[in-house]
Design goal:
The chain is mainly α and about 270 residues long. Helices cover about 85% and strands about 0% of the residues. It is found in: Membrane.
């Protein structure tokens, strides 16, 4: 828990660097394809993982309602795409082109879709097992408010960074201001518990589109700063894996989940 701010900062850097690739001309050229693939792969993973998870849960619990609730939550989680590994592989091989652009855009936008699906699934699951409080409409409005707030936060920070960088030329100062803006966005997003990727990505998109030429040098400076952050992030993520606590049914659930999620993502895309 003490290292959570560091983990959030690492996710913020990933979102910021993804935003660097999402310039206006990219969306004008490929926007329609991006959103079609986004929804089809997200819903494909959601449906198949929900069905697979519900079937395994039924064998464990014997309760239809509890099994459906488990399936809904697992399906919503499956719709998300963890960007860290994907982005690092693309950067490591220095890939370029339409496919790379599409993957980066979908990985970034997938975060908002997963939030919507998870809130809807969690509300449905609570209703099924009798612990739900509040209306679906209220939950939806809160979620939309969080997404709008995250985008607004990233945009305002991006505009602020844009004006600051107009008066700063030294590389060390540029890096200082870029990281400070990113830390500000991540820190504020952590107060209400919002995922930092979306506001950080909006920050990157704003800077990349307001200053297309100068921002390339800014993003390169941040990119050179990131390798130790990424290594630490993956080490800490792996530290949460405790195989000794896994039961046989958990292993079965994991295998079914991974296979169903992969099938849904591939078939949908």
């Amino acid at each position: 828990d003490k290292l959570e701010p560091f983990m959030m900062f690492a996710l913020g850097i990933i979102g910021f660097m993804i935003g660097a690739e999402l310039r206006g001309e990219v969306f004008r050229k490929y926007g329609r394809q991006f959103f079609i693939i986004l929804f089809s792969q997200g819903m494909g993973a959601f449906v198949l993982a929900a069905i697979g998870g519900a079937v395994v849960a039924w064998f464990i619990t014997g309760s239809v309602l509890e099994s459906i609730a488990v399936g809904l939550v697992l399906g919503a989680i499956a719709s998300a795409t963890a960007p860290a590994a994907t982005v690092n592989v693309l950067w490591e091989y220095k890939t370029r082109g339409a496919l790379t652009t599409a993957v980066l855009a979908i990985v970034a936008l997938d975060d908002a879709l997963a939030l919507l699906l998870y809130r809807a699934a969690a509300t449905g699951a609570k209703a099924l097992i009798g612990t739900g409080q509040g209306s679906v409409l209220g939950t939806t409005l809160i979620l939309l408010g969080e997404i709008a707030g995250a985008i607004a936060l990233g945009f305002l920070a991006g505009v602020l960074l844009y004006f600051l960088l107009k008066f700063v030329k030294a590389d060390d100062k540029v890096l200082d201001f870029a990281l400070a803006s990113l830390l500000l966005v991540v820190g504020i997003s952590m107060i209400p518990g919002i995922d930092p990727i979306l506001p950080a990505m909006t920050l990157g998109i704003t800077v990349a589109n307001l200053m297309p030429r100068q921002s390339k040098a800014t993003f390169e400076l941040v990119k050179k700063f990131t390798p130790p952050i990424y290594i630490s992030f993956f080490v800490l993520a792996g530290a949460h894996m405790e195989f000794g606590k896994m039961t046989s049914w958990m292993v079965v659930m994991i295998l079914v989940y991974v296979l169903c999620r992969a099938a849904g993502k591939i078939a949908g895309a």
